[in-house]
């Protein structure tokens, strides 16, 4: 970074660190002990919608890679488009298979990145639930290299449980690189996998 960048207040963007995803299984243990949330076995990778043959080839490669895992039931990765125009590659595993789910999310992100779709990657999430029906996602921001909790209120339309999100932030501060700028804790309403 040069002197002009410092004077103008420009900073280098944080390089994505997909290996941060591998911290999720240990964070899940902390999350269960602190707040009673357990993994759902579902996760997703969100990206700006991409069309064309190159993306279809990448999707087929990811599908083939994850199909090679014989310890899986059902389709490994499904493509969904949400109401906001974003695409989601969703992986479903048994709730006890969080490490395998993290491997899936890492593989999807890596394949997208290697094939030139890194700029379209937005976030990845892993879903959690509590016995009382509350839902929670731990969302990884690809371009920031950080996580944040997202907790929609049960039965409410587009309302969040901010108190729970802050509780989870405090509980996971030693397990995950938590996004400190709360304005970047974007809602992921209707996200597949949550």
Would you mind describing this structure in some detail?
A 6-stranded antiparallel sheet has the order 2-3-1-4-5-6. A hairpin with a 4-residue loop joins strand 5 and strand 6. The N and C termini lie far apart (39 Å). It has one domain. The longest helix has 20 residues, at 98-117. Helix 3 runs antiparallel to helix 4 (98-117). It has 5 helices and 6 strands; from the N terminus they run H-H-E-H-E-E-H-E-E-E-H. It is globular and about 45 Å long. It has 194 residues and is an alpha+beta fold.
Low-confidence stretches: none
Number of helices: 5
Q: Determine the N-to-C terminus distance.
A: 39 Å
| Strand order, sheet with most strands | 2-3-1-4-5-6
Estimated structural class: alpha+beta
Number of domains: 1
Order of helices and strands: HHEHEEHEEEH
Number of strands: 6
Percentage beta strand: 15-25%
Describe the global form: globular
InterPro entries: PspAB-like
Pfam families: PspAB
Task: Describe, in short, the structure shown.
With 194 residues, the protein is of the alpha+beta class.
List the helices and strands and how they pair.
Elements: H1 3-7, H2 24-35, E1 37-48, H3 53-67, E2 77-81, E3 86-92, H4 98-117, E4 121-130, E5 135-141, E6 146-150, H5 162-171
Antiparallel strand pairs: 1-3, 1-4, 2-3, 4-5, 5-6
Helix pairs in contact: 3-4
